[in-house]
Design a protein that fits this description.
The complex is a heterodimer of chains A (119) and B (114). Chain A is built from no helices and 11 strands. Chain A is mostly beta strands and 119 residues long. Chain B is mainly beta. In chain B, 0% of the residues lie in helices and 54% in strands. Chain B has strands spanning 3-5, 10-14, 19-21, 24-26, 32-39, 46-52, 60-61, 64-69, 74-79, 88-96, 102-104, 108-113. In chain B, strands 2, 5, 6, 10, 11 and 12 form a 6-stranded mixed sheet that branches. A 4-stranded antiparallel sheet of chain B has the order 3-9-8-7, with no helix packed on it. Chain B starts with a strand and ends with a strand. The chains are: A mainly beta (119), B mainly beta (114).
Chain lengths: 119, 114
C-alpha cells in the first residue's frame, strides 16, 4: 500500500513555456502533499506544503507565482512551473501523507520524481 | 529552526560487512520523529526505518537498526550484512510532532564493494 505516482517522469521544454507535473496517491487519501526540489547530488529542499482544498504554503524563498500548486482532490496535486527558464531545471519530487495510514509516525510516501530540463 | 547534520558525505563498506552512518540533529522540542530514507540511483525515496523520540528502545528493521541517543541528539543507522543493493544515498530526516514537514540532512552516499 501507500503508493504515490508522478507524471511525467521526464519532461523537456523550451524556455518561456509552462510545465505541469502531476502527483497522485493511488491507494490512499492524501490530505497533505509536499513538493520538493532536488539538485544533483544534493538533498531534498521543501518547496511547499499543500492541503486538500486550501492554498499551498510556500517555503521562504520559493516564488509562489512561478511554482503554482493545486491540490483540488484527495488524490491529486499538481505543480505548474510557469515561464520556465534553464535555472528551473531540476528533479522535482512529491510526497503525501493522509488518512487510512499509520499516520502516527508522521510518515511521508514519496513519488518517483520528475526530471525537468528547460532548454 | 531544526537542523539535521550528516557529517559523512561518502562511506564505503565491503559486502557482508557492517557500516554505521551518522546523523545528529538540533531541536528544542520533545515530541518528534526521526527517519532514515534510502535513495537508490532510481531516485525513488524509500523509508528504511523510523524512530519516535518518546521511545527509548532503538528501532530495528531486519538488517537495519538505529542507535538513538536522545540526550546527545544522535541518530545513527547501522546496516549489517551489507548487500550490493544497499548502495544508495541515505538521508536522515527529522519530523516534528504535530507538524508535517520533514527536515533532511545532506545525505551520505554509501558504496558497497563486492
Amino acid at each position: 500500500g501507500a503508493v504515490v505516482s508522478q507524471h511525467p517522469s521526464r519532461v523537456i521544454c523550451k524556455s518561456g513555456t509552462s510545465v505541469k507535473i502531476e502527483c497522485r496517491s493511488l491507494d490512499f487519501q492524501a490530505t497533505t502533499m509536499f513538493w520538493y526540489r532536488q539538485f544533483p547530488k544534493k538533498s531534498l529542499m521543501l518547496m511547499a506544503t499543500s492541503n486538500e482544498g486550501s492554498k499551498a504554503t510556500y517555503e521562504q524563498g520559493v516564488e509562489k507565482d512561478k511554482f503554482l500548486i493545486n491540490h483540488a482532490s484527495l488524490t491529486l496535486s499538481t505543480l505548474t512551473v510557469t515561464s520556465a527558464h534553464p535555472e528551473d531545471s531540476s528533479f522535482y519530487i512529491c510526497s503525501a501523507r493522509g488518512t487510512g495510514l499509520p499516520v502516527t509516525y508522521n510518515e511521508q510516501f514519496f513519488g518517483p520524481g520528475t526530471r525537468l530540463t528547460v532548454l | 529552526a531544526q537542523t539535521v547534520t550528516q557529517s559523512q558525505p561518502e562511506m564505503s563498506v565491503q559486502e557482508a560487512e557492517t557500516v554505521t552512518l551518522s546523523c545528529t540533529y538540533d531541536t528544542s522540542e520533545s515530541d518528534y520523529y526521526l527517519f532514515w530514507y534510502k535513495q537508490p540511483p532510481s531516485r525513488q525515496m524509500i523509508l528504511v526505518i523510523r524512530q519516535e523520540a518518546y521511545k527509548q528502545q532503538n528501532a530495528t528493521e531486519n538488517r537495519f537498526s538505529v542507535n538513538f541517543q536522545k540526550a546527545a541528539k544522535s541518530f545513527s543507522l547501522k546496516i549489517s550484512d551489507s548487500q550490493l543493493g544497499d548502495a544508495a544515498m541515505y538521508f536522515c530526516a527529522y519530523g516534528q510532532g504535530g507538524s508535517e514537514k520533514l527536515v533532511f540532512g545532506k545525505g551520505t552516499k554509501l558504496t558497497v564493494n563486492p
